[in-house]
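User: Run a structure prediction on this.
Assistant: Running it now.
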Amino acid sequence: MRRTDRLRACGVLLALAGAASATTPNGLPGVPQPAPASAPSAQPAWASMTPQQKRDLRARYAAWQALPDAEKLRVRRAGAALVAMPVAERQALQARFAGMDQMHREGWLLGPRLGAAYARLQPLLGYLPAAQREPMLNLLEQLDADSLEQLSLISQRTPPQDRAALREALLAVAPAQRAAWLREKVGH
């Protein structure tokens, strides 16, 4: 796994931390490790959480469940690499992630590929109506790297008052026509 791929997958891993079972080291999803026989039950920990902590944990778990299998595999590999890192390097990576804006940290919940593009897509996706969330995420998963980059440019160039219309128009474009539609919008 290339270093940039590992860093992207680690971003997802850190965003999802705590979403996996209590038997994973450092709460890293998809990196199972047998729990010692004397390990305490997860129930007391759950019972001591605030409602906000429980909501956050549920959201991270749902994000993990929603990742495509290929993205989960990348995150699992990154988890193994993260666990194998020297403690200082792992802590530096965790500190770098913690230093990011919360909005961008949460963007990593979309997986390594979309998480890496989220900062540029945020103007378009940041205030996505609930009814458009699933169709838009499905659409984003279908885009190739060039189309995703073009959508990132369009997202950044579109004034706030025009973003809802842009999302509706994008969702209305047939999948076979999206690449051409995006190129036309970018001006290529």
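Residues 1-115 form one domain.
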